[in-house]
Design a protein that fits this description.
CATH topology of the largest domain: Rossmann fold
CATH class of the largest domain: Alpha Beta
Oligomer: single chain
Strand order of the largest sheet: 3-2-1-4-5-6-7-8
Largest sheet: 8 strands, mixed
Number of strands: 10
Radius of gyration: 22 Å
Distance between the termini: 32 Å
Number of domains: 3
Order of helices and strands: EHEHHEEHEHEEHEHHHHHEEHHHHHH
CATH architecture of the largest domain: 3-Layer(aba) Sandwich
CATH superfamily of the largest domain: NAD(P)-binding Rossmann-like Domain
Number of helices: 17
Structural class: alpha/beta
Shape: globular
Strand content: 5-15%
């Protein structure tokens, strides 16, 4: 399918960043939002991102040419000649329903609709249209103009031709476009959620402190620690995602109660200048672990002591064992091709080594042994995936 013109619905942080990804490849974009105020905010962000590229060496003439590819609108009247639409509005199913019903009315019958949702059902979103075969998930990672991954998620009715067009479009942007079967939080965020939650349990137990946990994660594989990352995204967002995953997947995703208490105390992270870390109000830079977290942790523990502390000596691998186990569950469910899993995690999260490679390096038998030891103490968060057991029983040392 030849894609000559795209539309992006939603001019917020993600929508404007996705727009920059398109115009950088010479693809014209029709950018829509509900009013001119939101449009102007989006354009200001696009101008800021282009200026950053000029500051790093891009010619001003090239930046101006890219900026000229952006047209804006506050209605759907000009959507009739759009080939592909990317929806990037708020993560609210009712808002998305209105968007997709309008797109279905105003776009040509051949237009494909992609949703940038990070967790909502593509099948459900497709049902809001008369063309569910042309609705597909296209989950970009923030910031979309820099991050190399896009997850392509078909719904139950999505046609192979639509999937191929979405993958091709992602590749034309220079992205690693990975097909991911529909499941809650899809692939990368599903695995990320297990790792992020385990970091909170380690902190609650007193297995390590804030800076120790983050350093351990960075020493092994991550560009930024889980608690610093939670501060960036916001404890309120983290709590909502944790509750959603718990609802969808059950006990192994049970949210650590730290986030609930942090939200209650408005310790949201960078947005409130205090979360796991304190932040300088002038520079907004991190200024060490937040001393107020001691009271938050005390309130959550509620005099029960450090449950689990010392039961298993804290090692960095503990942070990644739930992620590794979830990776095997994803392979078991055929959520993605085995060869795509680690590249997706590395491209989407900046990991230096993916969870499957990590398990291979540790040894699949050793990985299973560690999971079984932790399962005996901590329960469902570490129940070994049946596929991992079969690999070990079959004496396999690599994953395919």
């Amino acid at each position: 399918m030849q894609i000559n013109r795209v539309a992006v619905v939603g001019a917020g942080t993600m929508g404007s960043s996705i727009t920059v990804a398109f115009i950088a490849k010479g693809i014209p974009v029709l950018l829509k939002d509900v009013d001119q105020v939101q449009i102007d905010k989006g354009l200001a962000n696009i101008d800021r991102l282009l200026k950053s590229r000029v500051d790093k060496g891009m010619a001003q003439k090239e930046a101006d040419a890219q900026r000229a590819l952006v047209q804006t609108t506050t209605d759907y009247a000009n959507f009739s000649d759009v080939d592909f639409v990317i929806e990037a509005v708020a993560e609210n199913i009712d808002i998305k329903r209105k968007v997709f019903e309008s797109l279905d009315e105003f776009c040509s019958v051949d237009a494909i609709f992609g949703s940038n949702t990070s967790s909502l059902s593509i099948t459900q979103i497709g049902s809001f249209t008369r063309r569910p075969d042309k609705v597909v998930g296209m989950h970009f990672f923030n910031p979309a103009h820099l991050m190399k991954l896009v997850e392509v998620i078909p719904g139950l009715e999505t046609s192979p031709q639509t999937v191929a067009a979405a993958i091709g479009l992602g590749q034309s942007l220079g992205k690693l476009a990975v097909r991911v079967e529909e499941c809650a939080s899809f692939l990368v965020n599903r695995l990320l959620g297990r790792y992020m939650n385990e970091a909170l349990w380690c902190l609650l137990e007193g297995a390590s402190d804030i800076e120790g946990i983050d350093k351990a994660a960075c020493d092994v594989a991550m560009p930024i620690g889980p608690l610093a990352l939670r501060d960036m995204n916001g404890a309120d967002i983290g709590l909502a995602v944790a509750k959603f995953n718990f609802q969808e997947y059950g006990e192994r995703f049970a949210p650590c109660p730290i986030l609930e208490k942090m939200v209650e105390k408005n310790q949201l992270g960078q947005k409130t200048m205090g979360g796991f870390y304190a932040y300088d109000k002038e520079t907004r830079k991190r200024a060490g672990a937040n001393p107020e977290m001691a009271e938050t942790l005390k309130a959550v523990r509620n005099g029960k002591g450090d449950h689990g502390k010392g039961a298993v000596e804290f090692k960095p691998e503990r942070l990644f064992l739930p992620m590794i186990n979830e990776a095997f569950l994803c392979l078991q469910e055929r959520i993605c091709a085995p060869e795509d899993l680690d590249p997706a995690l590395c491209a989407g999260l900046g990991m230096r080594v993916g969870p499957l490679a990590m398990a291979t390096q540790m040894g699949l038998d050793k990985t299973l042994q560690m999971l079984e030891e932790h399962f005996e103490i901590y329960g469902e968060r570490f129940r070994p995936a049946p596929l991992l057991k079969r690999y070990v029983w079959g004496k396999r040392t690599t994953i395919s």
